[in-house]
Specification:
Layout: E1 4-9, E2 12-17, H1 27-41, E3 48-53, H2 76-85, E4 90-94, E5 97-99, H3 101-108, E6 111-114, E7 119-121, H4 135-143, H5 145-154, E8 158-159, H6 160-165, E9 171-172, H7 178-189, H8 210-218, H9 220-223, H10 228-241, H11 244-260, H12 262-277, E10 295-298, H13 302-313, E11 318-321, H14 325-344, H15 350-358, E12 360-363, E13 374-377, H16 383-396, E14 402-405, H17 412-416, E15 425-430, E16 439-443, H18 450-462, E17 466-470, H19 478-493, H20 499-509, H21 515-522, H22 538-544, E18 557-559, E19 565-567, H23 569-582, H24 591-611, H25 618-629, H26 638-645, H27 647-656, H28 668-675
Helix pairs in contact: 1-2, 2-3, 3-4, 4-5, 4-10, 5-10, 10-11, 12-25, 13-14, 19-24, 20-24, 24-27, 26-27, 27-28
The structure holds (2S,3S)-3-hydroxy-2-methylbutanoyl-COA.
(2S,3S)-3-hydroxy-2-methylbutanoyl-COA is lined by residues 21-22, 24, 57, 60-65, 76, 97, 99-101, 104, 123-124, 127, 129, 131-133, 135, 275.
């Protein structure tokens, strides 16, 4: 059965693609589209053409699985040229997502109609690419530079209504009669002069050449380190300065090096890694999913409130429980403030804010959690407190309820012993700020039931999270690897390497912040108490001096009222004093050596995590670090990056610095793969 079929509706030829799951523009689709246009050209009884897709979406782009594997089939550019050159009006009928090559096909069409729920975008930059089939040349000609620049450089799709407003969509049609409405629209334009995107100049004439540098400056922070967005800006500028044919060639010349480059390999790796992370090897596909309609959150603090927002935004009623009225009121007010801030940026309507807030039921009474299908606790990170909470939940919650802990490192097997239903207990480790960070570490305990696990993974996707499954150990996957980096960070202090230098090495690598900026943000006193303070550790001494981080205006750094940070003379002097006293040889380390000291132990810890079966696969660890800890996505994540460095180089580095981490055990898996010249990706 061909993936492309055609049928007539009177004088209109309807071309239909049926290439699940997302109508990717694979070889058969391209060949079929081309043949359909030839059919239209050769039959005088055909006066117009409609192109649409069966299934859940319009073409969602080129077939990423075909990249690097020449298919011998016709390319996308000639297909789009054939559409555009067709002497009869061709109408794209869009539902779902018209993305990448899919939107480029639609731009080759003379008209575009869409259902209101459709989205349109050029997400190629998210794969380290730019549109490679004329998108950077046609889009500005249709919508202008001001709209084309953000679409091509962010890769974020726009809603059909927004697309109609900028002229990308000609008409919004009914959700229930897309084909019929598209055919009617096609009939209405028969015989009229048909717009050809590549020939239009009205939207780009007189473009101010300064707009491109202004856009670069305004987006410098967001685009830092990525190659593709700069290429996209260049390509859009080319569209305003060169004839279409030349521009198309120049777009190709910008596209090819990106396709062959490491950043695109890394980002394509992450694209498939994110989807692989959803798959749990030992969980049958038909594992029953438990019903979740009502959610309970215990704790209205930063984490509890942020977690609650995920469910409120997804339309779940949430009961949020605190012990006292004041923190409960603060928690509710913070949720409202966060929503109103988002609305002020135009990303939510006032009605949506009220709808979300209307789903929230604040409470001081644990009993109000009795009818929740999922309860998530976000109370203090102390085992005794967690076990007390789970003991209460065990007695209150209905049978079949999922009892989740947001702990970031505590032993969930032990927490489960506080209940008579360990099969209902699971870890849902959100990352702060929980309403923003996409990562969700789903921690399966020894007795977590299969349906509880499967339901948690489904819920993660429903609330827009990227989920990675972890086993139980101290710190699970993410924080266990982070501890390895933090330990080395502190060791570097003892060698007289100051916080600002350590942090800069990591921000230059591409992290949003380094270990000491992170400590100041999270608070130095996590896990610290006066009674157990260790005067030989810089962090403990800072806590003793009340330097707890941003929240006290000083930590490793000093902070102004607007939270801008400056190195602290007091702290730097203390560090140098400790370095002297500690007797550590004060090496004059290069930035490269500092980077190796910080990252190589993380790779080793990741390999130990894989050996112990705490993580299912190496690519899960890449997904975890990119979405949970800001590891620069254009390097592919820690395991992909380590593979590009060379696992033998990593092992040699670990051995070279062996005296710096006396208790380090080099992973047998890492050594074995290094010896065999293998990689993780
Ligand atoms: N090619 C091949 N497979 C794809 C694919 C694609 N473009 N998009 C999705 N899949 C697979 C995916 O791996 C998964 O497989 C299944 O479809 C469902 O995907 C020339 C060069 C469309 C919004 O970047 O954003 O066009 O795991 O789980 O959550 O200029 O898929 O089931 O085996 O993500 O409903 C540009 C990428 C390509 C769009 C649907 N297009 N896709 O999300 O399902 S480059 C993209 C998405 C290009 C041109 C350039 C999303 C989605 P499996 P899913 P979803």
């Amino acid at each position: 059965m061909s993936v492309i079929t055609t049928h007539r509706d009177g004088e209109v030829l309807v071309v239909v693609s049926d290439n699940p799951p997302v109508n990717a523009l694979s070889a058969g689709v391209r060949e079929g589209l081309y043949a359909a246009i030839q059919e239209a050209n050769g039959d005088d009884t055909i006066k117009a053409v409609v192109v649409r897709c069966d299934g859940r979406t319009f073409f969602a782009g080129a077939d990423i699985t075909e990249f690097g594997k020449p298919t011998g089939a016709i390319g996308l550019n000639p297909v789009i040229d054939a559409i555009e050159d067709c002497p009869k009006p061709v109408v794209a009928a869009i539902h779902g997502t018209a993305l990448g090559g899919g939107l480029e096909v639609a731009l080759g069409c003379h008209y575009r109609v869409a259902v209101p729920s459709a989205k349109l975008g050029l997400p190629e930059v998210k794969l380290g690419l730019i549109p490679g089939a004329g998108g950077t040349q046609r889009l500005p000609r249709v919508v202008g530079v001001e709209a084309a620049l953000p679409m091509t450089t962010s890769g974020d799709p726009i809603l059909a209504r927004q697309a109609e407003a900028i002229g990308l969509v000609d008409k919004l049609v009914s959700e229930d009669s897309l084909e019929a409405d598209a055919v009617a629209f096609a009939r209405s334009v028969i015989g009229k002069p048909q717009p050809v995107s590549s020939s239009r100049t009205d939207k780009i004439a007189g473009t101010d050449p300064g707009v491109f540098d202004a856009f670069r400056k305004a987006n410098a922070r967001k685009l830092k380190g990525f190659d593709a967005p700069e290429a996209a800006i260049k390509a859009v500028e080319i569209a305003t300065r060169y004839p279409f044919a030349e521009g198309l060639q120049m777009e190709h010349d910008l596209f090819q090096p990106l396709l062959a480059g490491r950043q695109s390999a890394a980002l394509r790796h992450l694209f498939f890694a994110e989807r692989a992370a959803n798959k749990i090897d030992d969980l049958p596909k038909d594992t029953p999913i438990l019903p979740v309609t009502k959610v309970g959150i215990i704790g209205a603090g930063t984490m509890g409130g942020g977690i609650a927002m995920n469910f409120l935004s997804a339309g779940f009623p949430v009961t949020m429980v605190e012990r006292e009225q004041a923190p409960l009121d603060r928690g509710v007010a913070t949720i409202r403030k966060n929503y109103e801030n988002t609305a002020a940026k135009g990303r939510l309507t006032a009605e949506q804010v009220e709808k979300a807030m209307g789903l929230l039921t604040p409470s001081l009474n644990f009993e109000d959690l009795a009818d929740c299908d999922l309860v998530i606790e976000a109370v203090f990170e102390r085992m005794d407190i967690k076990k007390d909470v789970f003991g209460k939940l065990d007695g209150i919650c209905k049978p079949g309820a999922i009892l989740a802990t947001n702990t970031s490192y505590l032993d969930i097997n032990e927490i489960a012993t506080a209940t008579k239903r360990p099969e209902a207990v699971i870890g849902l480790h959100f990352f702060s700020p929980a309403n923003v960070m996409r990562m969700l570490e789903v921690v399966r305990a020894a007795k977590t039931g299969p349906s509880v696990l499967a339901t948690s993974m489904k819920i993660a996707k429903t609330i827009g999270k990227v989920a990675v499954v972890a086993g139980v150990c101290h710190g699970f996957i993410g924080n266990r690897m982070l501890a390895a980096r933090q330990q080395q960070g502190e060791a570097l202090l003892m060698e007289g390497i100051l916080p600002a230098r350590v942090d800069k090495v990591l921000t230059d690598f591409g992290f949003p912040m380094g270990p000491f900026q992170m400590s100041d943000l999270a608070g130095l006193d996590i896990g610290w108490t006066k009674e157990t303070s260790d005067p030989t550790r810089v962090r403990d001494v800072l806590c003793e001096r009340g330097r707890l981080g941003q929240k006290t205006g000083k930590g490793f750094y000093d902070y102004a009222a607007d939270r801008t940070r400056t190195p602290s003379e007091e702290v730097d002097a203390l560090i140098l004093e400790y370095a002297e006293k500690s007797g550590h040889k004060r090496d004059d380390l290069s930035d490269e050596e500092i980077l190796e000291r910080l990252l190589y132990p993380m790779i080793n810890e990741a390999c130990l995590i894989l050996e112990e079966g705490i993580a299912q696969r190496a690519s899960d660890i890449d997904v975890m670090y990119v979405h949970g800890y800001g590891w620069p996505s254009y390097t592919g994540g820690p395991m992909f990056w380590a593979s590009t460095v060379g696992l033998d180089t990593i092992v040699a580095g670990l051995e070279k610095y062996a005296d710096k981490w006396p208790d380090l055990k080099i992973s047998a898996l890492l050594k074995d793969k290094a010896a065999k010249g293998e990689a993780f990706a």
